[in-house]
Amino acid sequence: MSTNINEPSHVYLLDEGLELWLIVVQYSRTMNHDLLKLCDNLLPLIEQSSNNLRTCLAITQTYIFLCPDVFLPQYGKDIIKTCHYLLTDLRTEGVIVIYRLFLTVLRIAPKYSIELLRPYLVEVFKKYYEHEGFIQINQIYLQMIARILILDQVTFSMILSEMGIPDAMDKIVTSWLVDMPAVARNNEKKLLALALTSLMTVSSDIIFENFSTIMANISATLNDITNEDEQSGAKVDSLILTDDNEAEIGMMMFGYGFIDTENMQNETPHYDRCRAVCLQDPTHVIVLKDYLQNQLITLKGTIGGSE
Questions:
Q1: Which residues contact 192 (CB under 8 A, 6 or more apart)?
Q2: Of the candidates 97, 115, 99, which has an alpha carbon nearest to the alpha carbon of residue 52?
Q3: Which of 227, 111, 132, 129 is nearest to 176 (CA)?
Q4: Residue of 23, 30, 55 whose CA lies nearest to 41
Q5: What are the pLDDT digits (tens) for 183-227?
Q6: Where does the record place the Importin-7/11-like TPR repeats domain (predicted)?
Q7: Can you tell me the distance from the alpha carbon of 89 to that of 132, in angstroms, rounded to the nearest whole number?
Q8: Cα angle: 193, vertex 286, 290; to 5 degrees
Q9: d(CA 91, CA 172)
């Protein structure tokens, strides 16, 4: 009742109702009929674009973590469409929150998310190509582009083609190389480095022309994320996560959406779900140094074979 905008009393109870709703989903271990049915109230609340938008999107994200296979097919399309519509009227903070929700979808449901977000991805690429607006938003565009590239190079190429701009690839890569040193978080920087590394074997003039700058950015990222193992003394990728480095997992998760410190400490079911996603993320699974070496070997073989 408190989150149903058709109920007159929701005006007085909405704030508390949303907070309670968020907590209930965070502490839920499985989806049930009543919890899913509550989502019928979610879209009308998001459409209002009120002061509660952030909490509504936090609830949305928590549902995505809880049961993406059920929630996204039933509610994902309409929520994404509504969020996209709201982008034109929101301030920078609101735009960032919505695009972070889109990033969450890409993280949690990699294959399905591309289909879900596909109608809006050309716009993301164009926005980054135009490179206007605040740096925080451009960095989120770049994070989305990098994830799409890692997930599906075919879709990445199709989007570039659909942009209908001859120098789209050139300008996106050039801006990418300029923007990358300004990225503060190591996990985000490594994501960009992984995506750049995946491009090294693509036959493209822009890649060969900027090869030294690409290598410089990847090398800088390697320097940032490489630590010395306390026991063996070997150089290791500090972002590779396993069950053995639980403390690092908690720290890494600060970059994943709306997760707050209190829930991390309490280790709610929501924390466990976020942790599972974190452990499967390419930035925490793929060793950048090894991937780079493999790509260089492949590139060497390709160049050698063409001579």
A1: 142, 143, 146, 176, 180, 183, 217, 221
A2: 97
A3: 129
A4: 55
A5: 999 999 999 999 999 999 998 899 999 999 999 999 999 999 998
A6: 2-306
A7: 17
A8: 80
A9: 25
pLDDT in tens, 236-262: 898 988 766 656 666 566 555 554 545
User: In which residue are the tokens 């996990």 written?
Assistant: 187
Contacts of residue 242, defined as CB under 8 A and 6 or more positions apart, other chains included, come to 279
CB 48 within 8 A of CB 5: yes
- Cα 109 to Cα 143: distance, rounded to the nearest angstrom: 16
Separation of alpha carbons 211 and 234, rounded Å: 28
At residue 254's C-alpha, the angle toward residues 252 and 256, to 5°, is 90
Please name the amino acid found at residue 16: E
pTM higher than 0.90 for the full model? yes
Which of these, 262, 282, 280, lies nearest to 271 by C-alpha position?
A: 262
Terminus-to-terminus CA distance in the chain, angstroms?
72
- 3-state secondary structure labels for all residues of 155-192: HHHHHHHHHCCCCHHHHHHHHHHHHHHHCCCHHHHHHH
* Look-up of token digits 């063409």: 306
CA distance 66 to 28: 8
Instruction: Report whether 252 contacts 284 (CB < 8 A).
Output: yes
CB 205: neighbour CB atoms within 10 A?
A: 9
Q: What letter represents residue 9's amino acid?
A: S
C-alpha dist (Å) from residue 9 to 15, 123, 137: 12, 39, 37
Q: How far is CA 205 from CA 167, 168, 193, 208, 211, in A?
A: 11, 13, 19, 5, 10
Is residue 305 classed as helix, strand or coil in its secondary structure?
helix
